[in-house]
Amino acid sequence: MRRWRGQGDTPADLGRTVVTVGMYDGVHRGHQQLIGTAVARARALGRPCVLVTFDPHPTEVVRPGSHPAILTSLDRKAELVAGLGVDGMCVLPFTPEFSRLTPEEFAHGVLVEHLHASMVVVGENFTYGHKAAGTVTSLTQEGRRFGFAVEGVPLAGDASADGEVTISSTYIRACVAAGDMESAARALGRPHRVDGVVVRGDRRGRELGYPTANVETPPFTAIPADGVYAGHLVTRDPSGATLGSAPAAISVGTNPTFQGSRRTVEAHVLDFAGDLYGEHVGVEFVSRLRPMTAFTGVDELVTAMADDVTRTRTVLGLPPAG
Fold first, then answer.
1. Which band of pLDDT confidence, cut at 50, 70 and 90, is reported for residue 241?
2. Using CA atoms in the order 309, 311, 315, 318, what is the torsion angle rounded to 10 degrees?
3. Smallest Cα–Cα separation from 31: which of 40, 41, 21?
4. How far apart are alpha carbons 30 and 169 in whole angstroms?
5. What is the full DSSP assignment across 114-171?
6. What was the pLDDT predicted at 201?
7. Is the peptide bond before 238 cis (omega within 30 degrees of 0)?
8. Per-residue pLDDT at 209
9. Is 242 helix (H, G, I), strand (E, B) or coil?
10. Looking at the domain 191-315, which fold is it?
11. What is the pLDDT of residue 246?
12. Domain ranges of the chain
C-alpha cells in the first residue's frame, strides 16, 4: 500500500480513484464494512482505493484540550487498512487553516484536484468542511457538479445485553476505559492493542521472578482501566508491521504496593527469557483478570502474580506451565 502525508505528496501517477474519508480510529467492524464497500467499488471500476484520514484528531484543533483517546496509531491504522485491500492512505495534516475550508473547497481541492475521485464512499453520518457543515447530501450535490459519484454506507450495529448499539470509536473508547475488553474486541473485530517502545523501568518484576516489558506509549493512547489483563505482546518492525506475538500477563496502573505514582503498561511474557529493551511492540488486551490492588507485602504480591499467570494461561487456552 502507498502512503503519503499532505496533498503536495499525492503520487502523480495515481489516476482516477475511489476515495473514502474519515478518522477511522480503531478501524472497527463498522469501518471495515465501509472500507470493504469502497474497495469493492474500486475493484469493479478498475481503479485504486484511497483512504483519507487526518492527523492530529480534528477535535484537538477545533476544541483544544479535547483530544480523545486514540485507539490506533497511524502505523497500526495503515497496517489494518492495507489488510482490507486499500491501495493508498493519504494523511492530511488537520490545521486551523484546513479546518476553515468550506465543504465546497474540501470537495474540489482534496477530492477532485488532488485525488481525482471518480467515486466517494463515506458513512451515512459523514460531515466535512468548516463547522462540519457538509453532509452526504451536499457531497452528492458537489459530486454531480465536479464529476464524482457518492455512496453513503449505513452504520453498523452490535447486539449487546442492553440491545443494539451502534459500533463507533466513542463506544469502543468507553469499553476500553472501563476495562471491558471483550466488548471492545467484539466491536473492533480483534483485541484492543496499544503500541509503544519497551523502555527501562524499575526492574522490580525481574527481582520478584516476573520480569516485565515496560511499554512507553504515545500521548493520547487509549489505555485500559487499571488492572491485570490476559493478552499478548506483539513484536513489530520499525514501520509498525506485526511480526509475531506471545502470550502475556499485563499490568496497567501505578504499582500501588510500592507507592508508585506513574501509570505504566507492563507485560510479563510467558515462558520468555530474552531482552526486549528498545523493541517496538504492541500489547493486546484479551480479558481483565482483576483490578489493581495494593498488597500488604511482597509475598502476597508474588502469590497474586503467580495466580495472574495461571489465569492468563487459562483465558488464552494454554496448557499449564511445564
1. confident
2. 60
3. 21
4. 9
5. IT-EEEEEEETT--BSGGG-B-HHHHHHHHHHHT-EEEEEPPPEEEETTEEEE--HHH
6. 73
7. no
8. 72
9. strand
10. Elongation Factor Tu (Ef-tu); domain 3 (2.40.30)
11. 96
12. 2-157, 191-315
Look up the CATH number of domain 2-157: 3.40.50.620
Q: Report residue 308 as a C-alpha cell.
A: 495472574
For residue 190, the SS3 value is coil
Question: What integer pLDDT is reported at residue 183 of this predicted model?
Answer: 96
Measured in whole angstroms, the distance separating CA 321 from the mean position of its chain's CA atoms is: 32
Q: pLDDT tens digit string along 90-147? A: 999 999 999 999 999 999 999 999 999 999 999 999 999 999 999 999 999 999 999 9
pLDDT value at 208 more than 80 = no
Cell numbers describing residue 62:
477545533
pLDDT of residue 256: 58
Would you state the cell numbers that stand for residue 140, as one nine-digit string? 452528492
- Cβ distance 134 to 127 under 8 Å? yes
Contacts of residue 78, defined as CB under 8 A and 6 or more positions apart, other chains included, come to: 1, 3, 89, 240
Residue 275: Cβ-neighbour burial (10 angstroms; 0-12, 13-18, 19+): exposed
